[in-house]
Specification:
Elements (H helix, E strand, L loop, with lengths): L1 E5 L2 H4 L11 E5 L7 E6 L5 E5 L7 E5 L5 E5 L7 E6 L5 E5 L4 E5 L5 E5 L7 E6 L5 E5 L4 E5 L5 E5 L7 E6 L5 E5 L4 E5 L5 E5 L7 E6 L5 E5 L4 E5 L5 E5 L7 E6 L5 E5 L4 E5 L5 E5 L7 E6 L4 E6 L4 E6 L5 E8 L2 E8 L3 E9 L5 E9 L3 E8 L2 H9 L2 E11 L5 E9 L9
Antiparallel strand pairs: 1-36, 2-29, 3-4, 4-5, 5-6, 7-8, 8-9, 9-10, 11-12, 12-13, 13-14, 15-16, 16-17, 17-18, 19-20, 20-21, 21-22, 23-24, 24-25, 25-26, 27-28, 28-29, 30-31, 31-34, 32-33, 32-35, 35-36
Amino acid sequence: MVATTCAALLACFAGSASGAIGDISTFPVPTPNSQPTGIATAPDGSIWFTEGDLLSGDKIGRITNSGRITEFPVPTPKSQPTYIAPGPDGNMWFVEYATNKIGKITPSGSVTEYPIPTTDSQPISIAAGPDGNMWFTEGGGNKIGRITMSGKITEFPIPSPSSFTQIIARGPDGNMWFTESGANKVAKISMTGKITEFPMPTPDSAPVGIAQGPDGNMWVAVAVGNKIAKVSTSGKITEYEVPTADSGPFGITWGPDGNMWFTERLGNKVASITTTGKITEYPLPSPSADLLLPTAGNDGGVWFTESDTNSIGRIETGARFTITSTAPSGNALLTRGRVPGFGRLSQKALIAGSRRTGCAASKSVARAGSYVIRCRLNKVAIAKRRKGSLRLVVSTTFRPTGATPRTIRRTVIFHAVKRSFSG
């Protein structure tokens, strides 16, 4: 039997959100008229974005959780970088739409470029695959490309002509999934290059954004059809109408709160959709921002690009570091809860009335969601419990990469037992 006492409600649901759900902040990009387009979260928790304007852009930007922006020039002039994604090598990878290249930028800002074999392929998006390579779409070349960490490129033709591929994302089934706005399809490609296409139920709906969801499905922003679509790995499609008419759903991402978040390019709103299809919309303070793409930050928010206002935006999702239960499991303390991002989770229990440690454990967390951490009681704690009730002051800390650590403290009591406490 175990009893848990919290000093206050926020001690058990600690790491309060930095604002109310739907609160929006904007950060102007230093370069005027840079046209921020693609955006992604790096392994260090920082947010990276592309500046796609042919005259004023040609840069890759990085923004911290506090809003500080640093810009790095792309070597090739008028490259028009449009999309960016983290790679398995710790670098950020991006596409150069106008100059037909794939770019790689290190955390310090050093850029390497790789030409695409197909002339005028018009690369649009890029994402890391389960095979350790980066995969990208060719809107003009009508192909899917794969590039290794050393820069070797292989291309795979798409069965449908003039498919005008848009966004590509890793799926839960070991395939890469992408949208075909020209052919009105969603498709997947295996690591060997086999492509399977699935027609959208709504004619001429122009699917654009795509992302994996927490329910094991792919979620799609359908721009002309004004819908959000859920696609199973077998290709079954369910569509949900967006409340605002002609809103132009564009980009979509898995949010830190367990919902999907998407941008409404024409509706000038950011919205969330639950896995059961309930949509909530949040209007932007700036009119006609031209919202493009979103990414889940490691600070409990969703970040997005505002092309026309030349800004990076952030919306609060309400995701917090929480503990839902702490209970004995054999000779250990088992704690369950949720984290709002990726980082390091640790737990340490001190024996009340002393400075001696009763248990300690830590683990890495790959993404936002539910967690379980098991903290094994040491010999000192077990021996004390045999003599009477064991009172532990437990601190569970989540250290999100690049964001502020959060700690939940509470008292846990193991009541006395006559027999040994063993697993």
